[in-house]
Amino acid sequence: MPESQQPAPVLEGAAKAKLDRDFEQLYRDHLRDVYSYSYYRVGNHHDAEDLTEQAFLQAYRHFERAQRESHGRPLRPWLIRIAHNLASNFHRDRARKPQSTLEHIDPIAAPHGTERIVEGREELKQVMSSMQDLPDDRREALIMRFALGMDNREIARALGRTDGATKVLIHRAIKQLEERMDGGGS
Amino acid sequence: MTEPTTNDVESLLRTALRPIDPPESLPGRVEETLSAVTEAAAEELSAWAEELSDSELASLRDPRNWLRPAAAVAAGSVAGGALLVIEMRRRRRPSGLRNLSDEVRSKLS
Question: How far apart, in whole angstroms, are the C-alpha atoms of residue A129 and residue A104?
Fold first, then answer.
């Protein structure tokens, strides 16, 4: 076969290698994000591990297209959206509502292998318990904001909303939490 | 008792919703699974490509001959499906993931 006809497979191989390197970087950068989000959605480490693994498998299958269509934008919202959808499926498949998970999370015991002195344990439990009363979308937005440190734009992309709607969503979530913790909300 | 302010609540949320470090075993588990998937897919496509002559490659431009590539794609889907089956079994068998690569290959063979 003439040499002029051979570069295509080489380029394909190089492109594939680059794609794999890029995915590996995405994985290393955001493993903790995906795991944290999954954990706060399902409320236990065992299922969070399963969801995290599934999220990265799905991400790998669609990574080339996601990268092509991202136009250079960060892929974390896309990754979190995958975890978000998997968590929703998890709750749907088990015919139980996500409201039953957060209140059982011990905010002190949650991290692996770390011992921290945390003041205001009761307040922390209260805020976690109050989050149970929030609508799903508000609770999910708060997890993205505070557990993952995502900004409004990232959260908007992950939830498929506009930036403005996301800003309002988070503002209302925090206000509702204030009311709940003050005992005024019902 | 004073009412919590927005700053108080945000501060509490930052503390309560700390990022959670994954267990030490998880990175290895995910990497092993991804490796198994990519190796299985690569072996499948490699074996398929080696069997093709130039004329066969040319004939693949005809959509009527696309059945085989479609089968290769389907094999990739089987790999994904196999992983899900294995994952379900793993829940009942704690040590199952250690042999994940071999199990995926056996599913494909």
Answer: 8
| Of residues B76, B81, B97, B82, the one with CA closest to residue B31 | B97
Residue B51 pLDDT = 64
Tokens of B50: 């080696």
H, E, C per residue of A93-143: HCCCCCHHHHCCCCCCCCCCCCCCCCCCHHHHHHHHHHHCCCCHHHHHHHH
Tell if the CB–CB gap between B26 and A35 is shorter than 8 Å: yes
Per-residue model confidence as pLDDT tens digits over A7-47: 445 557 788 888 888 999 999 999 999 999 999 999 999 99
Region A3-181: CATH code? 1.10.10.10
Domain boundaries, given as residue ranges, for chain A: 3-181
Residue B34 binned pLDDT confidence (cut-offs 50, 70, 90): confident
* Residue-wise pLDDT tens digits, A3-17: 445 544 555 778 888
- Residue B49's domain comprises 25-108
Residues in A 62-121 with any Cβ partner in B closer than 8 A: 107, 110-114, 118, 120
B68 in a structural domain: yes
What is the average per-residue pLDDT within B58-64?
58
Query: Distance from A182 to chain B by nearest Cα, in Å?
Result: 6
Q: Among all residues of chain A, which has the CA nearest to that of B18?
A: A147
Do B4 and A178 count as a contact with CB atoms less than 8 A apart?
A: yes
ipTM of this complex > 0.90? no
Asked if the C-beta of A182 comes within 8 angstroms of chain B's C-beta atoms, the answer is: yes
Whether residue B70 lies inside any domain: the answer is yes
B29 chain-A contacts, CB cut-off 8 A:
49, 53
Q: Is residue B90 included in any domain, yes or no?
A: yes
Could you read off the pLDDT of B71-102 as tens digits, one per residue? 555 555 555 554 444 444 444 444 333 444 45
Distance CA A26, CA A70 (A): 13
Whether residue B100 lies inside any domain: the answer is yes
